[in-house]
């Protein structure tokens, strides 16, 4: 009887240890989210009016204020959201436009960033 109790206690202890290891792992990286409000992103998107298959890059003032004082990756996410809002289901190459807008605001676009 005592050996049965010891066996059960050992199995429970091993289970608790392995359960603890699986729960102690850090969560994976999460996609960045634009910290600006939706109205700020919409103002930038409204400034990017569609012109015959392209975007009006000449007046990105709203977008430059949107990305002011942001990290490059967060700025890219915010501009990406604004482009998606202005195009809705457009077929313009978003990553090219993203780079143009960021460069016009004085921000170097990140390497390999994909607007998803």
Automatic annotation (TrEMBL):
Residues 34-115 form the Bifunctional inhibitor/plant lipid transfer protein/seed storage helical domain. InterPro entries: Bifun_inhib/LTP/seed_sf, Bifunc_inhib/LTP/seed_store, Hydrophob_seed_dom, Plant_LTP/defense-related. Residues 1-24 form the signal peptide. It comes from the Eukaryota. Keywords: Signal. The keyword Heme does not apply. It comes from Eruca vesicaria subsp. sativa (Garden rocket). This is Bifunctional inhibitor/plant lipid transfer protein/seed storage helical domain-containing protein. The lineage of its organism: Eukaryota, Viridiplantae, Streptophyta, Embryophyta, Tracheophyta. Pfam families: Hydrophob_seed. Belongs to the plant LTP family. PEARLI1 subfamily. Gene3D superfamilies: Plant lipid-transfer and hydrophobic proteins (1.10.110.10).
């Amino acid at each position: 009887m005592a050996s049965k109790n010891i066996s059960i206690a050992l199995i429970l202890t091993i289970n608790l240890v392995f359960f603890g290891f699986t729960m102690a792992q850090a969560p994976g990286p999460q996609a960045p989210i634009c910290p600006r409000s939706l109205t700020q992103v919409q103002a930038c998107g409204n400034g990017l009016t569609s012109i015959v298959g392209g975007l009006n890059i000449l007046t990105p003032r709203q977008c430059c204020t949107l990305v002011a004082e942001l990290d490059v990756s967060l700025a890219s996410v915010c501009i990406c959201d604004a482009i998606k809002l202005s195009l809705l289901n457009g077929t313009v190459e978003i990553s090219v436009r993203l780079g143009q807008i960021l460069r016009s605001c004085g921000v170097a676009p990140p390497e390999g960033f994909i607007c998803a």
